[in-house]
Amino acid sequence: LGAWCAQGDPSRPTTILSSGFDLTLTNENGATSTGQPQGMSRNTIVALQWDLVNGTITSDGQRIDWTNGTFWSRCSANSPGNLDGLWFAAGDASRQCSIRQRYGTLIFRNEQGVVGRGSFDGPMHLTADWSGTLIGARISRNGKRLDWSNGTFWTRSPF
Known about the structure:
This protein is mostly beta strands. It has strands at 2-6, 13-19, 22-26, 32-38, 44-47, 53-57, 63-66, 71-74, 85-89, 96-102, 105-109, 115-122, 125-130, 133-139, 145-148, 153-155.
């Protein structure tokens, strides 16, 4: 159960949730399927709405290999998780920014209302395109601060 990363990529989040005896699987595209554990050791999952694709869970529980050739792995501690939501330029409550995270795409709105698009380009790094100007950002280990390559920063909460 919990958060997984399709192909091990933190920008492609997937989930497995429990709903009674069944599981609810959500892939990186937002499609859902009911899933059922199978086998004596219950190390196989059958995705009922995805053409009965089967997933085999590794013995350490860190990876699911699907019969369609893809895999999900546990998102590492270095994964920033979900950056979606309200942010603050320089930690200033009067300078609100936002990030909309949808699958592999990030949509940024800075404190001046300018919109940029970007994506993850590493486990704890992203790049944003602000009208043709590319600016990178290092994501803090706890996912609550972005240090932009232009010398500015955003925080999840104001100081």
